[in-house]
Amino acid sequence: MKRIEKWLAGADHQTVRVAETAVAAALEAGSIISKLYGNPHRIRMKGAIDLVTEADLAAEKAILAGLSREFPETAVLAEESSSDYTRIPSGPVWIIDPLDGTTNFAHGFPYFCVSIAYSIDRQTEFGVIYCPVLDELFWAGRASGAWLNGKRISVTETSVLLESLLATGFPYDIPGNLERIIAQLHKMLPQVRDLRRGGAAALDLAFVACGRLDGFWEVDLKPWDTAAGQLLVEEAGGVVTDFKGGAWTPYLPEILASNSRLHSQISRLL
Length: 270
Fold this sequence. Notes:
This protein has eight helices and 14 strands. The chain is α+β, with helices and mostly antiparallel strands.
C-alpha cells in the first residue's frame, strides 16, 4: 500500500476506502497468479478459443472476498462469476477482470494483469491495473491523475502517425470479424511505425497511459477489459472514444484510445 500513500494524502474518506480496497484486492490476486504462473494448469474452455484457468477462478474469489468485506452492498460485474450485464448497472459497481490475458498466462507468455474498476452510473471513478510479472501497479482516480508505482504518468506527445507505435487485439469470434480485422490492419500497417498485439486489453490501455504505446483499438471487448484502463488513459491526458470518435462507455464493444494528438488520424483509418 506504500505505493499509493502519497496519492491518498489529499483524498477524501470515501476515495481512500475505495482505493485501498481495490489496490489490496489487485495485489492479492496478483500474488495468487504469480504463484501459479509457470505451473501446469487446469484449463476449461468457455468457447472455441476462450479459456479459463484455476488462476482466473482463484484470483476472482480473492478479489470478491476483499471487496465484499469493505463494500458488502456494492454490485459486482466480474468476468468469471457475475458477467451478465443485459441491464447496465446503475449506482456503484465493481467491474473486475481477475486475469486479463488468460491465454498468455496459460501459454507462459508474460503479458497479463488484474483489472479492477469502481464505477458509478457508467462512469469509472477509480481504476487499478496490476501486472504481477513486472510488479507494476497502475491506478487512476477521477480528476486525480494516473500513476505507476507512485509516479505520475502521461501519454506521449507523438503527433505524426508514421512515428507511432500502436496496439490492437483480436476478438474470440475470429470468423465473424475476420474481414473487418484484415481491412483495419491493411489500412493501418503502412501508416504507422509498427503494431503490437499483446493479448491483454487492460494492460494495453495502461501502456497507452504511461507512454509505451501511442494508441490502441479493438472490437468485441467487455466492460471488465476496459473500465479501469479507460480512466487511466483519460487521466494521463489521452482520449477514449468509439471508432468514429463518439462518446464511449465500457459497455460499448469497440474502443479507440490514444494520446489525443493522433486520435482523429487513427479514427479516420478505422
